Amino acid sequence: RWLATHRTVMLGPECGERSWSVVATELESDALAPIAALESIRFAMTGVAFLVASNVVLALAGHLAVAWIGIALWGLHMGLTQGLLAAMVAGTAPAGLRGTAYGFFNLCSGIAMLAASVLAGELWERLGASFTFYAGIVFSLFALGVLIWREQKA
What we know:
The chain has six helices and no strands. By secondary structure, it is mainly α.
């Protein structure tokens, strides 16, 4: 939708008429919305797969250089998923409520991160660093399974 809106502004609808190319772009973007949603899910799946790989490497890391590889994989996960999450909020929230939607999304994310950090700290203290990353693998695989299920449903 953004591309179509952007083109409308670029072509100057101030004269009250809309160009055929803008209308075609808007129709095309509406028709392709299910495909874009499916691609977003696949993109998210790729990001979560990098998170699984990161946790595996960090769980097995016996040397600092290996840990840096795990950190790099985690960075790829963050790069692939964080912008996508923001775009998903923007794409689903009505224009007048986007600020509220971002705020609510960040509130929920913060609460989830707090709970995950407390759990990770407890696992680390009681069972060690490797077990914490193994638990991360389990949670990440669960998230990946949900994404696969969602893709099949779409």
